[in-house]
Specification:
The chain is an alpha+beta fold. Helices cover about 45% and strands about 20% of the residues. Keywords: ATP-binding, Cell membrane, Membrane, Metal-binding, Nucleotide-binding, Translocase, Transmembrane, Transmembrane helix.
Length: about 800
């Protein structure tokens, strides 16, 4: 049986490092698919659990030379029976990529993590290891550590610059302790290079062991070549030295990676926001005693105690008591939901009032929150078609840069007979400027920010392909009931006979229907509101026709026309109103009291408050809107006119929905299908992009490409706008990355000599291009999109807009 799991992978320095892990894991028996995201520091692996286990995959990652803490489910959500210590048993110091040279690494198993603060360890640990930080360090700690590396390098670089020929032309300084100037420069350069650049040396070694050329290899080639050549010129032969160039070069490389790291940490905010929703502790009843335990230690079947203001730790079923629960952070529904005995409660939601006890039914990785986190992680690790192309280009770019660098040295030194200083400088410049960081970051950064922003608003893309495909939709089909409409009866019109008021009609009808559980009866009771209801005697259901009872001492009938005809009730007074309402597709309830027709109650499914706005927004974006319904064509066309829908698909049987999608696709259209995911699975699967609307916490819908947790059609607009904005950022980043390399290569190789650039300037250009791509992706958070909030975790209690009363259909 195949399953998909996400593993944390530390020490990934570039997209090419991720490629090395993918290459090795793909060769494992039982592994059918691997996608590694170096921005998130995680790998999504699809494997056959009967052939290979998670432990073997984790071991394979570590055999590649990368730190792996195991599956990336937040530790406070991990299955309680899992040996957390075992999951961390392979966390060795040498995996961190920053052990001091010559120091033997020691095994350092992590203790079980059991509270909410450990939830950040997913992408954060990966980035921490990647840039030489310790495990468990948060984003601020990582930025502080990288800042320290930068400042250490800069502290050694400033005196190197002062003692270099350019500095000495302004101020004459003598080396301390009577040292030779070149030896003093060597000592300073060693301080500027060895510790600050150590993560790059470690990452380059890993890459070469895995048969991959990556950005770290180019950094080591450029910095190492300049440093070693200068060392040789200092102690073994006469020649020019590059101490100044190497140290300044590394300063700018470190600065660029510092900025990039901060941007990457920012891209992971959505996952962290989701993880922070759950409480660290839970109060359970064990052996009759209240006990506070870590959320990860709650077992299925435990009795959990909840008091006012508590966060619910895991999913379960209410056994005793009741309350109002705020589920907005997960489902987006703004109003608290009443919970009584037998109702389901969801982990990470907030108890507003009252106390209750419930039995834990889903714990660990089975909770709704864990499933949402897993879905977002898988989407962020997946690769859009444009990213696959960029990854292939990055692989070739490093090899091309290496060959161009060698060719540059050969041409300038051997063919043109130029000094070795010039030839080596140009070669180093080529190695530096060609680092494919910008190309590797272009797509995954945008995907991470886009999917994260969607998750923060209850829009869950299952993969990057869905994110990209949603931009190409020509038509979106809405299954009418439950998507464009509320899917529940509502009183939409009243017609009263002479001598009767609307309140009288509703009071009499409500008095009878209070004893009925029929959906139409509930709609009438809802409309009757707070009107005082009369005592009722002799209530009786009349099969297929309606109900009858005694109200105010007189016989009262509520039902269809047949019930009126059987009881010889004269309908002439309201016959025109009845025909008009039925022509509009309404269900008409006739009300007779004392043998006389006193009024008509028209009932219909109500249009959602945001349906018209959603249809208008889609049409404004050039997307046609189709409505699919089992209603007759006359009724369907009237609804379509009200909502200004372009295409009406009426009289459609449930089994024919997929065929209607296929018909539109046969016309060359890219089709999106919006359904409730219950009886729409074939149509959702057939569509180019399937949207499951109103999923709530049921996010694991196999048939849908995009899961909309709320029952709001505007979220379809938000999903399409978000996908377009994300793709726009991808294209911007890719064009910048490609354009940068097209211009940079010939300039660095001296093709336009005497117009050349130094390695230091190349470092600024390389670091700047990567930082620009990362920052540009983060700017997606500032884009204004329909229905998309910024800076807010999964939708809170604030409603999107002030909404009018439901319109009727």
């Amino acid at each position: 049986m195949n399953t998909n799991s996400t593993f944390e992978v530390g020490s990934l320095l570039s997209s090419m490092s991720a490629r090395g892990v993918e290459k090795q894991l793909s060769q494992l028996p039982g592994v059918s698919a691997v996608q590694v995201n170096y921005v998130a520091g995680s790998a999504s692996v699809t494997f056959d659990v009967d052939t290979i286990g998670a432990d073997r995959i984790r071991a394979a990652i570590e055999e590649c030379g990368y730190h792996c803490r195991g599956e990336a489910t937040p530790r406070h959500l991990c299955a309680p029976h899992e040996d957390a210590g075992h999951a961390h048993a392979h966390a060795h110091a040498h995996d961190h990529g920053h052990a001091a040279p010559g120091v033997s690494p020691k095994a350092s198993p992590k203790p079980p993590a059991a509270h909410v603060h450990d939830m950040d360890h997913g992408g954060m640990d990966a980035m921490a290891h990647e840039m030489g930080h310790g495990a468990g360090m948060d984003a601020k700690g990582m930025a502080r550590d990288m800042r320290n590396r930068f400042w250490i390098c800069l502290a050694f670089t400033v005196p190197i610059f002062l003692y270099a020929p350019m500095g000495m032309s302004f101020i004459k300084l003598a080396p301390p302790f009577g040292l030779d100037l070149n030896v003093w420069l060597f000592a300073l350069a060693s301080g500027a290079v060895i510790y600050p650049a150590w993560p790059f040396f470690v990452a380059a070694g890993r890459a070469l062991r895995n048969g991959v050329l990556n950005m770290a290899v180019l950094v080591v080639l450029s910095v190492g070549t300049g440093y070693l050549f200068s060392l040789g010129a200092t102690f073994f032969f006469k020649g020019a030295q590059f101490y100044e160039a190497v140290s300044v070069l590394l300063v700018f490389i470190l600065l660029g990676h510092w900025l990039e790291m901060r941007a990457r940490a920012g891209a992971s905010e959505a996952i962290r926001a989701l993880m922070e929703l759950a409480p660290p502790k839970a109060t359970v009843l064990r052996n009759g005693v209240e006990t506070t335990v870590a959320t990860s230690e709650v077992l299925a079947g435990d009795i959990v105690l909840i008091r006012p203001g508590d966060k619910i730790p895991v999913d379960g079923e209410v056994l005793e008591g009741g309350s109002q629960v705020d589920e907005s952070m997960l489902t987006g529904e703004s109003m608290p939901v009443k919970k009584t005995v037998g109702d389901t409660v969801i982990g990470a939601t907030i108890n507003k009032s009252g106390s209750f006890r419930y039995r834990a039914t889903k714990v660990g990785a089975d909770t709704a929150l864990a499933q949402i986190v897993k879905l977002v992680q898988q989407a962020q690790n997946s690769k859009a078609p444009s990213q696959l192309l960029a990854d292939r280009a990055s692989q070739w770019l490093v090899l091309v840069a290496f060959l161009i660098g060698l060719a540059t040295f050969g041409v300038w030194y051997f063919v043109l007979g130029q000094p070795v200083l010039l030839a080596l400088t140009l070669t180093i410049t080529v190695f530096v400027i060609a680092c494919p960081d910008a190309l590797g970051l272009a797509t995954p950064m945008a995907v991470m920010v886009g999917t994260g922003l969607g998750a923060m608003n209850g829009i869950l893309f299952k993969n990057a392909s869905a994110l990209e495909d949603a931009t190409k939709l020509d038509v979106v089909i809405f299954d009418k009931t439950g998507t464009l409409t509320l899917g529940q009866p509502d009183v939409v019109d009243l017609a009263v006979a002479q001598g009767t008021t609307q309140d009288d009609l509703l009071q009499i009808a409500g008095s009878v229907e209070k004893l009925s559980e029929h959906p139409l009866a509930l709609a009438i009771l809802k409309r009757a509101g707070n009107l005082p209801l009369e005592p009722v005697e002799g209530f009786n259901n009349v099969d297929g026709m309606g109900t009858e009872a005694m109200v105010r001492g007189q016989r009262t009938l509520l039902g269809n026309r047949k019930l009126m005809d059987v009881n010889n009730v004269d309908l002439n007074g309201l016959s025109a109103d009845s025909r008009n309402l039925q022509g509009q597709g309404r269900t008409v309830v006739h009300v007779a009291h004392g043998g006389r027709l006193i009024g008509l109650i028209a009932i219909a499914d109500a249009v959602r408050p945001t349906s018209a706005a959603a249809v208008a927004a889609l049409r404004a974006k050039g997307v046609q809107v189709a409505m699919l319904t089992g209603d007759n064509r006359a009724t369907a066309e009237r609804i379509a006119r009200d909502l200004q829908v372009d295409i009406v698909l009426a009289d459609v049987l449930p089994g024919d929905k997929a065929a209607k999608v296929k018909e539109l696709q046969a016309q060359g259209k890219k089709v999106g299908m919006v359904g409730d995911g219950i009886n729409d699975a074939p149509a959702l699967t057939q569509a180019d992009v399937g949207f499951a609307i109103g999923a709530g916490t049921d996010v694991a819908m196999e048939s849908a490409d995009v899961v909309l947790m709320k029952s709001d059609p505007l979220d379809v607009v938000g999903a399409i706008e978000l996908s377009r904005a994300t793709l726009h950022k991808m294209h911007q980043n890719l064009w910048w990355a490609v354009g940068y390399n097209v211009v940079a290569f010939p300039l660095a190789a001296g093709v336009f000599y005497p117009f050349t650039i130094s390695p230091e300037v190349a470092a600024i250009a390389m670091s700047g291009s990567s930082a620009l791509v990362a920052i540009n992706a983060l700017m997606l958070k500032r884009t204004r999109l329909t229905g998309i909030r910024r800076g807010q975790a999964i939708p809170g209690a604030a409603d999107r807009t002030a909404r009018a009363a439901p319109a009727a259909v």
